[in-house]
Amino acid sequence: MHTISVKNYEEMSYHGAKQIHDAVMEALEHKGCANIGLATGNTMLDLYQYLAKMFNAEKADLSGVHTWNLDEYAATEHSAVSREHPLSYWKYMHKNLFNRFLPKCGFKEENAHFPNPADTKSFDDALAAAGGLDFQLLGIGFNGHIAFNEPMPESMISARDFAVLPSRVIALKERTIETNAKLTAPGGTRNVVPRYAATMGMKQILQAKKILLLACFAEQEEPLRRMITDGKPTPELPASYLLTHPNSAIVYTADKIKLDSGL
User: 106 with 62: CB under 8 angstroms?
Assistant: First the structure.
C-alpha cells in the first residue's frame, strides 16, 4: 500500500479522476471492456466532474464500460430506497457522473450496476461473471468503514472471515448515520438517512486489480493514522485490509489531514 499526500481537495479530485480514466482506457485497449467500482459522497463530487470532462474531451467510447457501485441505501432489509429518495445513490451517480457523459460516448444505462437489497448474491455473481473489478475507488468512513462494511469486533469475526464477506444488507452504525446526516442529508436531517444499506462485500472489493482510497476530511485522519500505525488488517478497522492488497494507494489532502511524511 502506498500513501500519497496532495495539497488540497482539487488536486486530490484530479488525481483520482486521472487514475480512473487511465484504468478504463487501459482495460478497454486490452480486453474491450472495463469494470470500475465507484463510490459516492462529497469526497467524489469534483472527481466525477473531472472524469466526465476527460472522457468527453477525447470522445471516448464508453460502451464497454461497466460500473459497479459500492452500495445503495435500503428502505428495509429487503428493498432499496426509491430512485427519487434524496440520498439514493442511483440518483447521485446519474446526477454527478452518468448524465454528464456526452451521448456520443455511448455509456449504457444497463451497464451501471448497484447492489440490490432484495438479492445481493446476484450482484456478486454478475461481477464474478464479468471478470471482477479492474479498478476500485473508495472513500473511508470516520469509523474506518469502506463501502458500508462497518467495523466488527474481533471477538465476533476473525480477520480472515471478515476479508471474504460477500455483498449483503447491513444495519448502519450510529456514527455512520450521524455523519451521513450531517454531510449529505438535506438540512442535516437525521431521519432522512436510512438505517440499512446494501453494500459490496469485502471479498469483491479486495479482489479488485487496483484500489484507490481518497481522504479529505479532518475526521478521517484518526482511522488512517490508526491503520498505518497498527500495520495489520482487522475487522475493527475495515480500511486496514488495504494494507495487504498488492496494488492499493491512499491519497489524502495535506490541508485537512496531518500524517507523518514518508508513510
Answer: yes
**CB 214, CB 16: distance < 8 Å:** yes
Looking at 145, 149, 236, 245, which residue is catalytic? 145
pLDDT in tens, 176-210: 999 999 999 888 889 999 999 999 999 999 999 99
Q: What is the pTM of this model?
A: 0.96
Where are the domains positioned within the chain? 2-253
The residue assigned the cell 446494501 is 198
26 carries an active-site annotation: no
2-253: CATH number: 3.40.50.1360
Cell readout for 165 is 464477506
**Catalytic option among 35, 143, 149, 180:** 143
For 134-178, the pLDDT digits (tens) are: 999 999 999 999 999 999 999 999 999 999 999 999 999 999 999
